[in-house]
Amino acid sequence: MSTSNENLNSTSKVAIIPLLAALVALVGLGDSIYLTVEHYKNEIPPCSIVQGCELVLTSPYAEVYGVPLSLLGALAYFIAFALALLTAFGNRSLWKIYGIQVILMSLFTAWLTYLQAYVIGAFCQFCLLSAATTFTLLLLFIVSKLFRTK
């Protein structure tokens, strides 16, 4: 294989991880928007996988100064989505900012998961989906650093 073909193939492989990250971020964005809408409708989404959504979503930890954490999550996921998508289509310098974003999101998510487990004593399936999404975004960033071509 020629050098130009190898460079083309390695560039394609690098771009796929940010594209996957953008798709994963959309899952988190959808989850967060759903929870935000339910919050403003003053409804608790039904918990069919685990019990405790009502305890978690009505706890004092579910809002910051009257703003639901789900709205802040939607903003964070949108930023991660935008950074990943822009990276996938060529702006590689934004991937470092994406990395910082998902590291911060993961730290906050770890704290929220701790709150569910040890302070509130209940789990919300939508919050757990958000946590899984965030940690997947972090994993994609780590994998991209392990297999970088430069």
List the helices and strands and how they pair.
Blueprint: H1 3-40, H2 53-57, E1 63-64, E2 67-68, H3 69-88, H4 94-120, H5 125-146
Antiparallel strand pairs: 1-2
Helix pairs in contact: 1-3, 1-5, 3-4, 4-5
3D structure, described in words:
The protein has 150 residues and is mostly helical. Helices cover 75% and strands 3% of the residues. The chain is built from 5 helices and 2 strands; from the N terminus they run H-H-E-E-H-H-H. Strands 1-2 form a two-stranded antiparallel ribbon.
Output mean pLDDT.
Answer: 89
**What is the H/E string?**
HHEEHHH
Percent strand: under 5%
- Please work out how many helical segments DSSP would assign: 5
For the terminal residues, how far apart are their CA atoms?
19 Å
What kind of assembly state do the chains in view correspond to?
single chain
Q: Could you name the ranges where pLDDT drops below 50 across 5 or more consecutive residues?
A: 1-14
Main sheet specs: 2 strands, antiparallel
Neighbour order of strands in the largest sheet: 1-2
Total beta strands: 2
Helix content: over 70%
